[in-house]
Fold this sequence. Notes:
The structure holds two protein chains of two kinds.
Chain A: H1 4-22, H2 26-47, H3 70-101
Chain B: H1 3-26, H2 37-50, H3 55-63, H4 65-87, H5 110-132, H6 141-158, H7 170-195, H8 217-247
Amino acid sequence: MSFLPYAVAAWLFVIGLYGIVTSRNLVHLIVCLSVVQSSTYVLLLAVGYRTNATAPIFADISTSRSVVDPIVATLTLTDVVVEATVVALLLALAVQAHRRFGTLDPNEMGALRG
Amino acid sequence: MSERLRLTVFAAGVVGFGAVLVWGLAGLPSFGDFDGRYGQYLAHAAVPERHATSAVAVTTLDFRGFDTLIEEFILFTAAVGVVVLLRVQRAGEEVPAEPDAVRRPTAHSGSLRSVITALVGPFLLLGLAIVVHGHLTPGGGFQGGVILMAALFLVYLGGTHMRLGPLRPLAATEASEGVGAAGFALIGLGGIVVAGAYLENFLPFGRVSNLVSGGDIPLLNIAVGLEVMGALLVVLGEFLDQRLLMRKGRL
């Protein structure tokens, strides 16, 4: 099943988007966005995987062992940090939106109000 | 836009996206066959060239250190952004402490509070261990910083005050964030002064697998840990203050 990890990434992306489109609450919408973003972790780590390889930590294995790609792990780390910052900023904006419109339902927020 | 129209547009978009995605994924190496020379080179250069056993930490903080510097400042900027967004509506007004009559503990059960308080020490220790062993084992400043933040946040969860006052000194968390970000940048400058290039290692590498090894990687991990812990505490503190303002009916 060599395509399965890629299918998981695609599924996470689409199901997260579906959540965003149908969301009735900004906080729920932000969580859905983080689901979309988590698909990129799966994709990155899946790309770097090598059959029969282990984690690139040489604390208890020989330096000649075959290891998975450390660069995608680094990129995933960056990705996680970026996601955390995006979620924090969006939640702050949601607090402001609630203050201005008195609701967290995006459908009830008039674009011209405020 | 009506719900139905929106779902129709979404469905059309997903079909188009799916087609492009399948096309793109078909061009990827099949799962498990990735042969990135650069990654393999970095993984096997970590121990001989940097004397650090975690190739991910070496890649993050040394080979791609500049990237991580920027990443750290993304976090720094985002925390500042949250503060700006949420603090502006207080307009200089200090969040008042809750009067004893209305104060409600976060955890209602006394035994739960005791357990939470007892966990603060072990969490702090775990966070510190993850930060300082970042160059040897999985972990590092980002991961350990989050655990340290959680440890300090347990103080709030186990307490009876919404407002921690001196226990959550805003100045100290902001200072921790600033020192972490500046520390990373200054260690990079040290590389220019001593070794001739920004973020170039300028400390002795030490013996492989020792706690003090890997040159400046452990120092960078500590800087990142301080930065992550400070930034997350600042952000969570701002959200807590909002909760307090809402409870007081100011929002």
